[in-house]
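Hey team,

Sharing the YbaK/aminoacyl-tRNA synthetase-associated domain-containing protein run so nobody has to redo it. Sequence (182 residues) first:
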Amino acid sequence: MSWSIAGSLTVVPALERPDLLAAPVARALAGLDAARVGVAEIDPGLADTAEFSAHYGSPLSAGANCVVVLGKRGEAERMAACVVLATARADVNGVARRHLGVRKASFAPMDRAVGESGMEYGGITPIGLPAGWPVLVDAAVARAPELVVGSGVRGSKLFVPGDLLAALSSAEVVDGLGRPVG
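Structure output:
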């Protein structure tokens, strides 16, 4: 597959480079249409979206961020992921909180997000998250023909079509989850 958003990166089929994937991501890709997923090695110090885009020439508008959310209702807790375009912020306290049916929602503590996902902070991706976690995908992400997302590690990025993320077994497409920044 050809990726117009790759900038200066060389993208290869993801399953050809399992060394560039977190273990849960590699396992999950085996059950997907992996021919539609590419991976590119990057400098781990440039994994944050803005720095990645600026350095490699990949448009910021083609980036998607995955944030882990912890929702609470009384003593019950619920983990979930929100996937929004890099040019937006996840509406955690509004749309996500209501969609999850919790009284309070916030970004999950880093150690918990990393420990429970099996992925590195700054590389968490919706592909390969624990089965019990809903993956809330903003409708703009689902419509995107090409996206750059984390690979589960900071040393690479995945290239995927938005409809593949929307079709994940735990995914739910949510209108208005991403709020434009600025």
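The radius of gyration is 15 Å.

Ping me if you want the raw files.
A.
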